[in-house]
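Format notes (please read before filing issues)

Several people have asked whether sequences and C-alpha cells are stored in separate files. They are not. Every record keeps both together, in the order shown below: the sequence lines, then the C-alpha cell lines. Line labels are part of the format and must not be stripped during preprocessing.
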Amino acid sequence: MTFLHVIWDLDDDPKGNVRHIAEHGINKAEVVMVLAAPEAYEESRSSGRPVVIGTTNTGRTILVVYERVDRDTVYPVTAYDLED
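Then the structure lines:
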C-alpha cells in the first residue's frame, strides 16, 4: 500500500507533527521515503494506530506512526529509529 498524500503541520508549529518527528532526529523526507515503500505494516502497541517500518536512503530503519485520513492520504503522528 502506497500513500499519495502526506499532511504536514507548519514547520514552526510547536505542537505539529513536523516538530514532533524532528525531536526524534527524523525529517519529513525520511518519513515520506518510508511511507512510499514500507517494508512492514504493524499496529502501535501504545496507541493502536497503524505503523509502517522501512529503511531510508541513508540506511536508517525507522518506524512511522500515522493516522489514515482517506484511501490515499495519511497524517504522520510520530516517527523514530528502530534499534537493532
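For reference, the curators noted about this record: The radius of gyration is 12 Å. The chain has a mean pLDDT of 93.
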